[in-house]
Design brief:
The chain contains one helix and six strands, in the order H-E-E-E-E-E-E. The protein is α+β, with helices and mostly antiparallel strands and about 110 residues long.
Length: about 110
């Protein structure tokens, strides 16, 4: 049993070293919007948007389950940050990314 102790200590050290990194990495919010990009139907606004962010990566803005999800990705599509916003009004209207400002549209 004594000869297994160094291996166990080494394994625990490795696990404790990697655990904060695994816990700190955010996971993307899952959604199902395949083929929901029918831009000819005006009564159903598009719920997911991508734009190139300041760092040269992509930012995802999507209306999912009654909240707005915002995720920033780097150039290699690694998720950097994820946050959610509460909706202002009950109907989702859309999102627009301008040069200096970004706009969320809600309705009632």
């Amino acid at each position: 049993m004594k000869k297994h102790i160094p291996g166990i200590v080494l394994a625990l050290t490795l696990l404790l070293t990697l655990l904060p990194t695994a816990m700190a990495t955010p996971a993307p919010v899952q959604s199902s919007n395949i083929n929901d990009q029918d831009y000819t139907v005006y009564s159903a606004p598009v719920k997911s948007h991508l734009y190139v962010n300041e760092e040269g990566g992509l930012t995802r803005v999507e209306y999912v389950d009654g909240q707005v999800v915002i995720e920033d990705y780097d150039r290699e599509y690694t998720l950097l940050r994820s946050r959610t916003l509460a909706v202002e009004l009950p109907l989702w209207g859309g999102f627009y990314a301008a040069q200096d400002y970004h706009f969320l549209v809600f309705g009632q």
